Amino acid sequence: MSQRLPTGGRLIDRSRQITFQFNEEYLKGHPGDTLASALLANDKMLVGRSFKYHRPRGVVASGAEEPNALVALGKSNRMEPNQRATTTELYDRLYARSQNHWPSLHFDIGWINNLLSRFLPAGFYYKTFMHPRPFWKHVFEPFIRQSAGLGPAPDKPDPDTYEHTYAHVDVLVVGGGVAGLTAALAAGRAGASVMLVEQSAQFGGRAVVDGDEIDGQAAGIWVKNALQELDNMPSVRVLDRTMGAGVYDHGYALAYERLTDHAPDLEAPRHRLWRVRAKRVVMASGAYERPLSFGGNDIPGVMLASAVRDYVVNYGVSPGPSTLIVTNNDSAYRTALTLLDASLDVAAVIDARETASSPLIEQVKSRGVRVDFGKAIAKAKGVNRVHSAAICAQTGDGTVLEDIPCDAIAMSGGWSPVVHLWSHCGGKLNWDEAGAFFRPDPDRPPLDQNGEGFVVPAGAAGGDLGLGVALAGAHGAGKAAASDAGAAGDAGATPEAETPAEAPLKPVWVMPENAKIKLRQKMWLDYQNDVKVSDVQLAAQEGFQSVEHTKRYTTLGMATDQGKLSNINGLAILSSALSEPIPQVGTTTFRPPFTPISMGSIAGEARGDIFQPLRRTPIHDWHAENGAHWEPVGHWRRPYCFQRPGESVEHAVAREVTNTRLKVGLLDASTLGKILVKGSDAGKFLDMMYTNMMSSLKVGRCRYGLMCSENGFLIDDGVVARLSEDTFLCHTTTGGADRIHGHMEEWLQTEWWDWKVFTVNLTEQFAQIAVVGPKARAVLEKLGGMDLSAEALPFMTWADGKIGVFDARVFRISFSGELSYEVAVPAGQGRAFWDALLEVGAGFGIMPYGTEALHIMRAEKGFIMIGDETDGTVIPQDLGLHWAISKKKDDYLGKRAQVRSHMANPDRWQLVGLETTDGTVLEDGAYAVETGVNGNGQTKVQGRVTSTYHSPTLGRGIAMGLVRHGPDRMGEVLSFTRIGGGRQEAKIVSPVFYDSEGEKQNV
Amino acid sequence: MSEALATVSRLGPVGMITLKGDLASAALSKAVSDLAGCALPGALAVTEGRDAAVAWMAPDEVLVVLAHDAARDGVGRLAGALAAEHALVANVSEARSVFEIKGDVRAVLAKLTPADVSEATFSPGSFRRTRLAQVPVAFWMRDAETVHLICFRSVDVYVSDLLRNAAAQRA
Asked: How far B14 CA sits from the closest chain A CA (Å)?
């Protein structure tokens, strides 16, 4: 049984006890514990069940690489699944549940999968759920979804707050072990600005646990002094509980700080995502110990040898009275010494090497521990916890020589540098034969914007596993990073430490070497996803030769731990199955984040009211107070209509249309784009931008214009007013304001950089209010001021002046077909102007109208709308807009594209009006069908509806659509599709349904 | 809630004039200094005269910040002085809102803008045209504890909420 030792535990405060809950049971721990150490202290060796076979699983590691001990942490709206118990700091009233079991952790129905495991090999799902085809959607997929997934999702909004913070530093050091501290010290002393991040709450890493000495001091003392020195440097920021999550192009890196996870009552954002720009990143992320692949290596009680040391030294927790150690290298011997020092029993050291000798091994032997060379574990035995191990020869097939009783097995298969951050941005790796691991290739680093390597490995992460060489390398890395960043001060002395002599490691990927299939089916590679040695071998046998394909076929390394423990072991198995050397097989891709980060931290402040910017016109508040039924238009909110109490949306729209046609309406058109274009080449420039001739426009006049992309497609439209000889004001659609301004600037800056043209986007400088309807002039004249008569201000002209007390620029333009003035006033006067119009207009029956009435009135007039009649595939010629395409100009954007054979094809669908035979409304996007079917067995079509409305003016449905040869087929009746079946008939008519002579707007 | 990092207030109407032109032209330089009482700023900088400030917006653009009621006259003076030049002068006073942030301004801004606002690169006289969370803004430092920030008028509620939210949280 695992338990708390009577003494020891450098991180825990034994003077205080805290209470927590695991699967509803109340348990006790100490401040400083992790959830994992506290569970082990309470003899909770079984902490969860695996994903596929629901096998019992216990804590295997002590840090971020933990694959098994995942819990659902917290309750209700603070419940979070898949939290690693090994990195969860214990706090009072912590509440955790184990995952993936039903009905209980100890009695689990899914365990049946384990008994069936020989029938559930790699690719089982792919092979089994193929036929019959229709079963996939209705039977297989729902079933698989039901059984998939580790842990439940929270069902309520997250009550915590999160934030981002940007930081700009010379050197970012990731990892607060002794290598990271050394690099940070060197860089800081040299004068660089430094940010040092450590994912746990403690600095010093393995060196402190393993009792190393640096500069003649105990590592713990050295670490304390190093932190003190860093703290005294004003340009150095040291952050604990902060994980280096990802490295990206241009020296961009993300670090994930957990501020309150260990203390939920603290008043602070829960997580902070640091968005760092660093000139250099020092990767001091250490190394992970690898498991060994022997039968039953997933049974609770089988742990990494280094994790056993961590639990004893850091938390005073032992995995059991008697521990069996199995290894292929020297480092596990440290575990033997640690256990002996804690007065615990070491059952034996089973060393797979034929022979090995080093001071460390001799030290263990001299303390009376049985050390067997050339031996292996054939099989760990036990169900919910290990009770013994069957020993065999490493070179054999698993023939059992003896059983050794034990309460825990500490395993070490060697070490793998944590190279994720090196690889995120393209750094390459070399295979190190001696250590049997991948290490960063210093000649092929990730490159920054200057073509220089910007990530520098330090310590074990760089493959320097011995303390002395690690510190020397880390000092050099910190110094070099600072110097690259332009800080060339004195980096101080290299810390001195010994690298003890170790006997060579023997790569062991399968234990024993010639294990039969029955054993290989019980050798776990990926604990979370239940991928075994036999699965990877099967994948290779079935032709999955690429490591990326094997990964996806077997799901090796695809769980929440992303294969931190399993990747190297898995690809070694693959390489041997393929008879190819490991470096040739290569690794799968390392992708950020290093360990999962919260969704909240990604969102940062963007939630609730500040989830997205909401753009408001100067008259927004009036709309909100007067029944606006909102429509999102880009980030704007525009009133779709103004609902009166008890009124339906449809009725409100009809009322607004009718009132505008008969009396006078008011539209907030402030969102329309207004781009000022000035310069001696402005006319020439606009001739290129628009299909029309704009340079011939007279000062004081307005002209409707079309803009196309260089591919000929219509992208925007609007009215251009010539303000002076060299100045034009271009109106764009609401959505086009920023886009068209950018489009203009792109051409000016990249192609026509020598033309004398300046542009500025004045959209928000003005509130623009359309006064529309037969009584529009009377309303404005009542306010007094400038002459707005037909003679002084004819249709398609503009003038500056005063209306009442307001500075106004009045455009005599109409998108409704009615007498219409669009009045621009300074935005700050917009609301007052709106109020004044409502007041003087009351006697004329003035009413505001929304975007839907606007749409209906323009459709009644046959005016196109960008985004309705256009969809990125429509050219002006499709819409019968030939009159707006200048024949006199040599060129305009889109001209050449429009003469291409496909664009000039007379079979292109063209704009027509559509009138239902029974007065009903066509469905938006409905297709006009033809007889026959196409090659895919689909009904042939000959046109589609682009805009469709009920016209209150005409009392029936009207629509516009694109129809093959449409304008030549006036009067023909077409059949249109309906959602849910059936057909609707409509006659092809002119798109102008109302006042086709244009008399009403020109009065 | 613990003590806020900074206070955020919206300034009343502020006059602003966009001037695009050749910043190396002597006529332009003189027109600006005659109006604003200060020299043209260098890149990424702002200069302040007695009643006006001039901010560098782009290699061919400056923003003149002055009293709201002086903007119309200022536009006329600049346009008049630059009539013979290739230049654009526009009153943009109404298009934008201006905020004042006072307190630990670097901490507040660092939560929202990717621009480097550390002391090493951002100090009184520095001007940045960048973004704040999801919208474009420009800001400059007046003194160690005061920043003025300009955003588009339509998003000033969003910017106000953002700044207050960032200023309220002390970790």
From this structure: 11
- Give chain A's contact residues with B (Cβ, < 8 Å): 161, 163-168, 193, 259, 267-269, 272, 275, 277, 604-606, 609-610, 612-618, 635-636, 676, 678-680, 756, 758-760, 762-766, 826-828
Place B1 in a pLDDT band, splitting at 50, 70 and 90: very low
Across the interface, whether the CB atoms of B1 and A267 are under 8 A apart is answered: yes
Smallest Cβ–Cβ distance between A764 and the set B2, B18, B95 belongs to B95
pLDDT, tens digit, for every residue of B73-122? 999 999 999 999 999 999 999 999 999 999 999 999 999 999 999 999 99
Q: In chain B, which residue's Cα lies nearest the Cα of A267? A: B171
- The rounded distance, in Å, linking the Cα atoms of A708 and A729 is 18
pLDDT at A106: 74
What is the C-alpha separation between A296 and A302, in angstroms, rounded?
9
Maximal C-alpha separation, chain B: 58
Strands A408-412 and A322-327: parallel
What residues of chain A lie within 8 A of the CB of B168, using their CB? none
Structure tokens of A418?
């944590």
End-to-end CA distance of chain B: give it in Å, rounded.
11
Q: Which residue has the higher pLDDT, B23 or A123?
A: B23
- Supply A4's token pair: 């708390």
Residue A843 has φ and ψ, to the nearest 5°, of -70, -15
> What DSSP string runs through A400-449?
--EEEE-SEEEEE--EEE--HHHHHTT--EEEETTTTEEEE-TTS--B-T
Distances (CA, A) of A815 to A160, A694, A707, A818: 49, 20, 18, 8
Q: Which of B115, B155, B162 sits opposite A605 (nearest CB)?
A: B162
Q: What is the pLDDT of residue A529?
A: 87
3-state secondary structure A203-260: CEHHHHHCCCEECCEEHHHHHHHHHHHHHCCCCEEEECCEEEEEEEHHHEEEEEEECC
The rounded distance, in Å, linking the Cα atoms of A158 and B42 is 46
By Cβ distance, the residue of A167, A613, A765 closest to B155 is A613
Q: What are the residue ranges in chain A where pLDDT is below 50?
A: none
What is the three-class DSSP state of A675?
A: strand
DSSP label at residue A690: B
Q: What is the three-class DSSP state of A598?
A: coil
CB contact under 8 A, B94 and A161: no
pTM: 0.93
Q: What pLDDT score was predicted for residue A461?
A: 98
Using a CB-CB distance cutoff of 8 angstroms, which residues of chain B are in contact with residue A764? Answer: 94-96, 152-154
Query: What's residue B53's pLDDT?
Result: 97
Residues in A touching B60 (Cβ below 8 Å): 758
Among candidates A221, A207, A196, A184, which has minimal Cα distance to A287? A207
Please write the tens of the pLDDT for every residue from A161-199: 999 999 999 999 999 999 999 999 999 999 999 999 999
Crossing angle of helices B26-36 and B71-81, rounded to 10°: 160
Burial B84-121 (b: 16+ CB within 10 A, else e): eebbbbbbbbbbbbbbbbbbebbbbbbbbbbbbbbeee
Q: Which two tokens stand for residue A831?
A: 């609301």
- When CB atoms are compared, the residue of A613, A679, A827 closest to B153 is A827
Closest chain B residue by Cα to residue A608: B161
Is ipTM > 0.95 here? yes
